[in-house]
Structure formats: structure tokens, C-alpha cells
Specification:
Blueprint (H helix, E strand, L loop, with lengths): L2 H9 L9 H14 L4 H11 L9 H14 L18 H11 L5 H7 L11 H9 L5 E5 L11 E3 H9 L7 E3 L8 E2 L6 E2 L11 E4 L6 H10 L4 E6 L5 E6 L9 H17 L14 E3 L12 E10 L4
Antiparallel strand pairs: 1-2, 1-3, 3-9, 4-5, 6-8, 7-8, 7-10
Helix pairs in contact: 1-2, 2-3, 2-4, 3-4, 5-9, 7-8
Length: 315
């Protein structure tokens, strides 16, 4: 087998930190160098597929492995490109400036601003939410956080879910924000296949944005003033508001690699993280709270604002 084929095969079988990860990094770096893969791409590929484990893998460990491989094969040395610098400086000050521009902090006013009328009970939110955000044939996961994805059970086409909810059915409290392929893909930790991970995403339509450190009123103020293509705002039934952002209004994203470049690195790392957004939300198979679910606190997860087109609230 050619080195490039073995390199690609290695990328489909990453080892978790604490379980042979260092040897896997060295092997993958060597195969990439022998196969004439650009060293920056090798670094990107390794970083992209490393699963979580018992320790964090620093960029230096990956870079050192690539450098050693290059020297061993007389290919020179590797100088990685620096991480992109934040576009926004003084993020909290900038965030406060956005918040101060808003004239709205009350959810009743937010309802009035919704581009789609929300004149129904929260228990019926799922019936109205799904057809606005997805196509009838889109495969969607709706279930609990730790459930395995099972085709025909918690992974169904959108039209089936709508009929299920219309018939009075209840699913789980979470929904994956993008539609799925229906094909198995390897888990990040390399322990088997899954049907509901980042590698299973078919269409990269939405990203999720959430603040952990803002009051509810300031969250409403931020979202009514931010110039972002918002498709929906969802009340989690707790302290947070989940914003669904339409990706196509920001970049052309057709693959996980595109996502990592345009959404994870540019949107999240350069713009959103400096503003204090929860960085853990930056993957395409992210779970959001499913509207229409009644939490054990007695609060509904519900739609606060909804639009047919991703757009700023005050347009």
C-alpha cells in the first residue's frame, strides 16, 4: 500500500491520548511526510481527528513529530502557521457595546419581533420548528444526550418526526443541529462506529451559539442587536438561549474540513470566543435543546424567535 493510502487509513483510526496516541501521531506524521503531504495539512489532519482521552495533546507534540519525520526523511523542517489572531480585540467591551445598542430585553418584545408568528402553545413548538429549519427528507437525531443514534428510532426523517409529534409523541430533550447521512462513521475515540457524530453530518447548515456568563436579559439584548444570520432563538428552559446561525450566509461549507476552516477557526476562534461564547459549541453535530420539551423544572424548552431566512432580528 502506498504511503498516502496508509496515511489516510491512519487518519480513520486515531488513538486516544493515554492509549497509544503518541505512537499514532509519530506514525501518521511519517506516512504523511513520505507521501508528500504538505506538513501544515498533516498538522491540521492530526489535530482534527484526535479523540478526547486522559490527557490534552498540545500542538507542540504534533509539530515535534512532524519535524522529526521531516528530518528523518531529509525533507527540511516544519514551521507551523500561527493560529489566527482574533478579529475582535477587547471582546467583553465589544460585547457590551453590542448589548448597549439594543432597545429590547424582554422576551415578550422578542416574540413580537419574530418574523414568524409564534401564536401557539409551547408544547406544539416541535411541529412548527422542524419544517422551518429542515427539509422533509432530512435525517434528524432527536433524543437524550448520551443515547446512541439508532436509525428508525431516534434518527428519522424530518417528515416522520413531524407526524410523530402531531400524533402526541415525545422524543428526547435534544436535537442535533444538522441533518445526518444515515451512514456509520468512526467515533472520535476510535472505539467503534456511530450514527450521530461530526463525521455523520450530511449538510452543514447551522452552527450553535450560546453564552454561559450573561444574564437572560443581556442575552436578549445581544441577539436583538448582533448582526448575524439568526434562524432561531430557543429558550433552553434554564438560564441560556440557544441561537441557531445559518452557515450558508457566512461561508461555503460542504465538508468537515470546510467547517473547521470557516466556522471553527474563523467564526468561533476569531470572532465569537473573544465575545465570550461557549467554545464547546463549535462542532457541527452539536446538540441543542429541542423546542416543545417540558423539563422536570416545569419549564418548556421553547422558541423565542424564528425566521424563514437567517437574518438579523432588527432588519
Amino acid at each position: 500500500m502506498a504511503a498516502i493510502d496508509r496515511y489516510n487509513e491512519n487518519l480513520t483510526n486515531p488513538q486516544a491520548p493515554g492509549n497509544g496516541c503518541h505512537s499514532w501521531i509519530m506514525s501518521t506524521a511519517n506516512l504523511g511526510v513520505i507521501g508528500s503531504v504538505d506538513p501544515q495539512q498533516i498538522q491540521t489532519d492530526i489535530r482534527r481527528v484526535i479523540p478526547t482521552g486522559t490527557r490534552a495533546i498540545r500542538d507542540k507534540e504534533i509539530n515535534d513529530a512532524i519535524n522529526k519525520a521531516m528530518m528523518d526523511h531529509s525533507k527540511g523542517t516544519f514551521t507551523p502557521r500561527p493560529r489566527p489572531k482574533p478579529i475582535i480585540n477587547n471582546g467583553k467591551d465589544t460585547r457590551q457595546q453590542i448589548i448597549n445598542q439594543s432597545q429590547t430585553s424582554d422576551e415578550a418584545d422578542l416574540y413580537e419581533l419574530s418574523h414568524i408568528r409564534l401564536d401557539y402553545e409551547p408544547k406544539d413548538d416541535a411541529i412548527h420548528f422542524l419544517p422551518v429549519l429542515f427539509e422533509p427528507g432530512d435525517l434528524l437525531f432527536i433524543g437524550d444526550r448520551l443515547e446512541a443514534g439508532i436509525m428508525g428510532e431516534n434518527i428519522r426523517v424530518c417528515s416522520d418526526w413531524i407526524n410523530f409529534f402531531k400524533a402526541g409523541g415525545t422524543a428526547g430533550p435534544f436535537i442535533i443541529i444538522n441533518s445526518l447521512s444515515g451512514q456509520p462513521a468512526q467515533k472520535k475515540d476510535g472505539t467503534g462506529d456511530t450514527y450521530r457524530g461530526d463525521g455523520n453530518v450530511k449538510t452543514f447548515k447551522y452552527c450553535l451559539v450560546e453564552f454561559d456568563d450573561l444574564s437572560r436579559e443581556d442575552q436578549i439584548r445581544f441577539w436583538t442587536a448582533a448582526k448575524l444570520p439568526i434562524k432561531a432563538l430557543v429558550d433552553t428552559g434554564g438560564k441560556s438561549i440557544h441561537a441557531w446561525i445559518e452557515v450558508s450566509k457566512l461561508a461555503m461549507v460542504n465538508s468537515l474540513d470546510d467547517w473547521n476552516v470557516h466556522i471553527k477557526r474563523r467564526l468561533y476562534e476569531q470572532i465569537l470566543r473573544p465575545l465570550g461564547v461557549d467554545a464547546a459549541c463549535s462542532n457541527p453535530a452539536r446538540l441543542s435543546r429541542m423546542p416543545g420539551w417540558l423539563r422536570d423544572t416545569g419549564n418548556y424548552q421553547r422558541i423565542l424567535w424564528l425566521s424563514h431566512e437567517g437574518e438579523s432580528i432588527n432588519v
